[in-house]
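Record 1 of the preview.
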Amino acid sequence: MPRRFSDNQIDNAKRVNLLDYLSRKGAVLRRAGSEYIWIYRDGSGEHDSVTIKGDGSKWYDHKRQQGGDTIGFLQEFMGLGFKEAVEELLNGEKPVEEMCSTEDEIRYGNQNQKQSQKKEFKVPKRNNDMRRLFAYLTKQRFIKPDIIAYFVREKSLYEEPLHHNIVFLAVDENGVPRGGQMKGTSTLGGGFRGTLAGSDTRYSFGYRGKSCKLFVYEAPLDLLSYLCLFPDWEENSHIALDGLSPKAMLFFLETNPQVNEINICVDHDAAGIEASDRFRDILIDKGYAPANIHRLLPSMKDWNECLKQNNGALAMPAQEHPSVEAYRYTVRDLCEIIPRPKRTAF
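->
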């Protein structure tokens, strides 16, 4: 007979302090008065719209205008079902009572099902001209006009008419649109970024070449920038991930078995360094030879920052991983403390 969580178990899961839970997971939390702001990153960039009460009992996403308790948080942001969320919060504790379901399970289950229902993907309309797209990409991002023109001709890069955002369309091997990302052309602040609603995130903006080499980037602008920096790109394949998820990379490799060399070109920052190591482990587990997995490290924070620097603009420097920096300082200090052994001539 199926088991359910007891009311006591569910109450204990709800009472888990969300701030403590996130801290144990290495999350970034910033104090704001009596609350905390959870800083997280996904495919559309870095976000600070989620606040958590000071006692860690409730959260609220101001962008989506919804909130809830700790169980709901794991469902919303970690993709867990009700059962998996409760088990996670109870450190693996299993349901104890033999019964079909509780009102909580029905409520959370329906909520999770509703959230997981996939929206239909609709290709955004194209603007009659692309003046803002060309102006932003050439003047602000220094992307070469011929690179822009190529992807415009392929209809995978264009400007939409409503807000004049740039659309980076993801198509399958038959040229059928499957999803994509959008980037604002405003020069104020960080600008809008987002994944198109209903996108099949197995597909990504990019280019399919004929060689056995694949180059993987964190975002479409990084991809375009790399093509500007290294002109001999057309023989190889290039894809832009939806952030730092390996999903599109693994699907591309699955559907393109001739590719056996992977070049990881994600950002030169803490998140990118961790992701590149994670990607390498995943690829080795998939059977790819370690010698054929390369980390191409931009000299600045990312490839567009490198392109900015090449064009004399202010560019953001690379950001080393704190653990790597700490290791270097430790080794340096040890070298100063421990004297080198004297060399003996024979």
